[in-house]
Amino acid sequence: MIDLNNIEEVIKEEKKILRNKSKNYKENFFEIKNFIEKEILHIETLKKNGINIIPEINFKDLSPSLIEFKKEVKNRGCVVIRDVFDDNLIHQMNKDLESYIDENNYYEDQKKKSDIDKYFSDLKSGKPQIFGLYWSKTQVNIRQSNELNHVKKWLNKLWVNKHNNQTIFDPNNELVYADRVRRREPGDTTLGLSPHCDAGSVERWIDKGYQSVYENIFADNFIEYNPFNASYRNETQEIESAAVSHVFRTFQGWVALTEQGPGDGTLQLIPIAKSMAFILTRALMDDVDDNDLCGSKPARALSVNSTYHSLLLRGLVSIPKMNPGDTVWWHPDVVHAVEDQHLGKGYSNVVYVGSTPYCDKNLAYAKKQSKKFLEGKSPPDFAAEDYEVNYKNRAEISDLTPLGKKQLTL
Fold first, then answer.
1. Are 147 and 338 in contact (CB under 8 A)?
2. Starting from the edge strand earliest in sequence, which strands make up the sheet with 193-197, in order?
3. How far is CA 228 from CA 60, 183, 199, 232, 260, in A?
4. Which of 48, 110, 150, 241 gets the highest tally of CB atoms within 10 A of its CB?
């Protein structure tokens, strides 16, 4: 367990250990920096020439083959999978979600509890008005759909899931990770999220599980580092705090409920799967205080900032235009953001989903989460706002399919 009362001393000691893993930690960083610079220049060239950067595929074309395409996804750390859901179905789901919000007076509830969720408080754009709803029928039906289950299996199989002949996770069995909703109105300037990563901030340097995940990065073996190797990723220990992910996700993602694209206040990514290596080794450089990790703070998102990460930020790109029923997915180490302004004409709405395959770490979380589902409370990883306890038309166990029950361990 990480001692938050002594966190600066812990950081100082762990940085010494991490530096000593390398024969020359400065040379190690510059080798990684050179790799990142080449990737950034390539992204900038593609962007300048109007060439798509984020890999795309249609749902019906997903298959176990696609060797070159899968290689591109692993390099970019992200993928757009289109037409996962029928347009008419998603249109109705969006309307149903809107009705759920309105009939339960969510906006009034949110005003009363606006100071509970502090997770994004250190990101420059301020607190986003992402809806703290988890158990609407729209969300539950998307999660338990056969379509999403098929997508997640395909994504899971991009990973190396065995280590020393031991299975780390089962790519064919998914557990649900309930997450929130984004509904962004045209003209909004308050909901932006500056570039960040989830699932741990300071933990990525000082947790022993994470140190094992990133061993090749720290120990002068960057060329062998594979961000899609799941070894030790289900052994990490995140700081106990609301809104810090305590599961192993092969991918984060969302389903588009409305049309949205660049300029519509939507998602941005730095599409470099190995970018975490730059973030980690940058913090070991001598211009960063010994008790600091480039401004990272415990129990918060891992902020990526212009002071230390200006090179990386040059690679930030908005995702392509998304249609209702399209999905986008990104590796848990990929830096992501939400545009500061919504300059479009229609609502920019998404349901957040993530791929959490069956493993002991995820199973332990899923069992805690299932109790929250039955009570209509916020899941364990999120601030205990508990809006939905008495909400009308909240999804209940009778709304679950056999797959939905299995994924919720019910």
1. no
2. 302-303, 193-197, 336-338, 267-269, 317-318
3. 24, 31, 16, 12, 29
4. 110
Q: Is the pTM of this model over 0.90?
A: yes
Close Cβ partners of 45 (under 8 Å, ≥ 6 residues apart): none
Domains along the chain with CATH numbers: 56-200+240-272+288-407 (2.60.120.330)
**Residue indicated by tokens 């010494």:** 16
Q: Report how far residue 327's alpha carbon sits from residue 83's, in angstroms, rounded to the nearest whole number.
A: 8
Contacting residues for 362 by C-beta, under 8 A, at least 6 apart: 169, 175, 177, 234, 247, 248, 356
Across 103-210, the runs of DSSP E, i.e. the strands, are 162-163, 166-167, 170-175, 181-184, 193-197
Structure tokens at 307: 């002071």
Give the up-direction half-sphere exposure of residue 250: CA atoms within 13 A in the CB hemisphere.
31
Q: How far apart are CA 305 and CA 278, in angstroms?
A: 13
Do 397 and 410 contact (CB within 8 A), yes or no? Answer: yes
What span, in angstroms and rounded, lies between the C-alpha atoms of 301 and 338? 14
Q: Which residue has the tokens 């379509």?
A: 147
Contact 263, 318 (CB under 8 A): yes
Question: Among 408, 381, 382, 380, which residue's Cα sits nearest to residue 395?
Answer: 408
**Residue burial 111-120, b: 16+ Cβ < 10 Å; e: rest:** eeeeebbebb
pLDDT tens-place values along the chain, 410 residues long: 677 889 999 999 999 999 999 999 999 999 999 999 999 999 999 999 999 999 999 999 999 999 999 999 999 999 999 999 999 999 999 999 999 999 999 988 887 776 656 545 454 444 447 899 999 999 999 999 999 999 999 999 999 999 999 999 999 999 999 999 999 888 888 777 899 998 889 999 999 999 999 999 999 999 999 999 999 999 999 887 766 788 999 999 999 999 999 999 889 999 999 999 999 999 999 999 999 999 999 988 899 999 999 999 999 999 999 999 999 999 999 999 998 888 888 889 999 999 999 999 999 999 999 999 999 999 999 999 999 999 999 999 999 999 999 999 99
Angle at 175 between CA 127 and CA 98, to 5 degrees: 45
221 Cα distance to chain centroid = 26
H or E element that contains 76: helix 67-76
The conformation of residue 398, written as its DSSP 8-state character, comes to G
